């Protein structure tokens, strides 16, 4: 019992340690990136970006922008700046989206409100941007790669951003800079592809964000696909065994896990993290659909084989019972014949060796002796004068 508990504890601890290490490497890491030119690019307004969520099905990404005035409140003149995010990259659900000119500012920052009472507050505004399946930005306007939900879970998307600030009073461009990225979109890994600034004094910023599935999602989907194929291989092995061996023993318990797996494949597929609705993705063509077909055919084949062998086994059992009954009848007939043969032999022995005088087991009746033979359940009448022996019952 002690060995059992020690082995169990060792196994549990080993699994916990292994999965903890694996989970730490597969978990989604927030960018926490600081731009390399945070302090080298002169700007009046700095931005920090927080990634809120990403939706490849709706092809949108939500981003919170945190503008900050770089000049100390005590030494700066009043600045009112309108912040614009290029409408070309915004989704129609974004609050600042405007299909016509003049464009609506995404946010207006006021230095007097920012520095009121000497206590800076934290301004923030949100945009809903488009996710693109091709990578194109100010530096590479021609698409160099493409992706879609068909490639799940290896689909990759890009979210270009273009932001600028304009002085509300003078309409002059205000230098801007993006200095920090943070936040996590659940089940997605975000990387900063590039940050490009417009002409000096850096009045515009172009950002290219890359969004892809997290490593945990990729590993999970691949493991599910491999598990599906392992179950299908087990089913195929059972089918091959029933075909090669004449009479393998097939237990009903062998079908509990595979059949349960067949019924759960569709539900597992529907609950994969971020998977497209319905079938048709590449992962479906290589895992779910072929496995479903294989297991359905194998299930039908095994059920037919089991039914056929059960019927033939019942027929064989009936033949065996019939043969055993015929053999018992034949054996009983043979025993009767042997018994009559033994009686005939004893009768002949008495005929050739007549009884001259009765013994204690014999008695005389009207001149004839009655001789019982208990061993054969027979008795005989003997006529001493003639030596004739007649069997009696």
In short:
With 393 residues, this protein is of the alpha+beta class. It is built from five helices and 15 strands.
Give a topology summary.
Blueprint: H1 2-26, E1 33-34, E2 45-55, E3 60-69, E4 80-85, E5 107-110, H2 111-114, E6 125-130, E7 156-167, E8 173-174, E9 176-182, E10 188-197, E11 204-213, H3 215-244, H4 256-270, H5 282-352, E12 363-365, E13 368-373, E14 378-383, E15 388-392
Parallel strand pairs: 2-9
Antiparallel strand pairs: 1-9, 2-3, 3-6, 4-5, 4-7, 7-8, 7-11, 10-11, 12-13, 13-14, 14-15
Structural commentary:
With 393 residues, the chain is α+β, with helices and mostly antiparallel strands. The chain is 37% helix and 25% strand. It is built from five helices and 15 strands. Strands 4, 5, 7, 8, 10 and 11 form a six-stranded antiparallel beta sheet that branches. Strands 1-9-2-3-6 form a five-stranded mixed beta sheet, with no helix packed on it.
- Based on Cα principal axes, name the global outline: elongated
**DSSP helix count?**
5
Q: Assembly state here?
A: single chain
Total number of β-strand segments? Answer: 15
SSE string: HEEEEEHEEEEEEHHHEEEE
Query: What average pLDDT do the residues reach?
Result: 75
Intertermini distance: 75 Å
Question: What is the total number of structural domains?
Answer: 3
Proportion of beta-strand residues = 25-35%
Over all CA atoms, what is the radius of gyration? 48 Å
Low-confidence stretches: 355-370, 373-378, 385-393
Instruction: Bin the helical content.
Output: 25-40%
Structural class: alpha+beta
Largest sheet, if any?
Answer: 6 strands, antiparallel
Protein name: Transmembrane protein
InterPro entries: DUF4436
Pfam families: DUF4436 (PF14494)
Keywords: Membrane, Transmembrane, Transmembrane helix
